[in-house]
From TrEMBL:
Its main location: membrane. GO terms for cellular component: endosome; plasma membrane; receptor complex. It comes from Loxia curvirostra (Red crossbill). One of its GO terms (molecular function) is G protein-coupled receptor activity. It is found in: Cell membrane. The gene is Gprx. This is GPRX protein.
Length: 389
């Protein structure tokens, strides 16, 4: 490869690593700083896994992928440590994403059951399960690994270059437990969520003008005019917003599932293909490409699972305003049209599936949500009945 390609590749890898560091730290700070957001324990855990990967795994990936570090030689013990971190963090990240998908399913489709059963103890048990399974699958990869005082170059310290007949068995088992099964669960869960979103958007009736008068208003005349103007502009778009909600739901689903498949499908497909002809060793360039496509997941996860949530975005904006000493009074009177446009997929489905009795507990009492609560006199479409306990 030319020097220009090496420089561009090294720059992209470093930029991706720095993005993963900053984005995951920001989302973790927002979640941990505000008690309201501590319910996002699995999102926070995903950020922890991504941050550990950005600190340990991605720098090692830079050393293994760039020809600038061809002089780096690993001992057998060091090579085992690198493979341990690689497999463990990849497994923990994918399993956490799978659990987040299941959590969203219960949070949206069965909100009452979620409120009752989703306790701190259950969340901690889920986190423990993720790490136990990740460590076990990693130990399995190191079984029958050659022992001794040998050494290998950093670029060949991967599962792809691992010797022994156990490689094929491990790669197949690793792909099934850490990719194929989680992918099936994610697709099934988000398909069910989309059906609820589509049913809710089709059943949602236009809200009469008498029911949309806000109960909580700001004191200033300018704020009242802003809210009134927003409602007037919103009324003609009530019916099209039903289609907007459905399109937003499917677009968000496609983005979340598509991002997961784009990052991890090439990685596992490459290793499955490499394990079929046992003993053949191709070039390492293909492994480097699919590995960094997979590592990009550590940088984009905080955007898809953290900043995509409107509550986290609002808290980030509030922290930014407080750091810049901007007044908060006018921002509290945001128009309902802006709230409708910026409302993300989870809020849309949450409002569509929460019962009237749990409406105030399912939606945080922000100024925008206080305006939304004026419509609770109408039936909530798309709700999935809960079993009485």
């Amino acid at each position: 490869h030319s020097i220009g390609q090496e420089v561009v590749g090294l720059f992209c890898m470093i930029l991706l690593t720095l993005t993963a560091l900053v984005a995951n730290i920001v989302v973790m700070v927002i979640i941990l700083k505000t008690p309201l957001f501590r319910k996002f324990i699995f999102v926070c855990h995903l950020c922890v896994v991504n941050l550990l990967s950005a600190i340990f795994l991605m720098p090692l990936g830079i050393i293994s992928s760039s020809s600038c570090f061809n002089w780096v030689i690993y001992s057998i013990a060091e090579c085992k440590a690198v493979i341990f971190l690689n497999i463990c963090f990849i497994s923990a990240s994918i399993l956490t994403i799978c659990i987040i998908s299941v959590e969203r399913y219960y949070y949206i489709v069965h909100p009452l059951r979620y409120e009752v059963k989703m306790t701190i103890r259950l969340a901690v048990a889920g986190v423990v399960f993720i790490w136990v399974k990740s460590v076990l699958i990693t130990v399995l990869a190191l079984v029958a690994w050659p022992h001794g005082n040998g050494a290998t170059s950093a670029s060949r310290c991967t599962v792809y270059w691992s010797p022994g007949a156990h490689k094929k068995v491990f790669v197949i088992l690793f792909s099934i437990t850490c990719f194929i099964l989680p992918t099936i669960i994610i697709l099934a869960v988000y398909s069910s969520i989309y059906r609820v979103a589509r049913t809710a958007s089709l059943q949602q009736a236009p809200v009469p003008a008498q029911a949309v008068a806000p109960r909580h208003r700001c004191d200033s005349i300018a704020s009242q005019v802003t809210i009134l103007t927003a409602w007037i502009l919103m009324l003609p778009r009530l019916i099209p917003d039903r289609l907007l909600g459905s399109n937003k739901a499917i677009l968000t689903l496609v983005l979340i599932v598509g991002q997961f498949l784009c990052c991890w499908l090439p990685f596992f497909a490459f290793h499955l293909h490499s394990s079929v002809p046992v003993g053949t060793m191709g070039g390492g360039h293909g492994e480097m490409v699919v590995t960094w496509i997979a590592y990009s997941s550590f940088a984009v996860n905080p955007f898809f699972y953290g900043l995509l949530n409107r509550q986290i975005r609002e808290e980030l904006a509030r922290l930014r305003r407080s750091c810049l000493n901007h007044p908060l009074g006018q921002e509290l009177c945001l128009s309902i049209s802006e709230a409708s446009v910026q409302e993300n997929f989870l809020q849309f489905l949450q409002r569509a599936t929460c019962t009237l009795e749990t409406h105030t507990s399912c939606i945080s009492p922000s100024p925008r949500n206080r305006l939304d609560q004026t419509t609770t006199g109408f039936p909530t479409p798309g709700h999935v009945p809960e079993e009485s306990s």
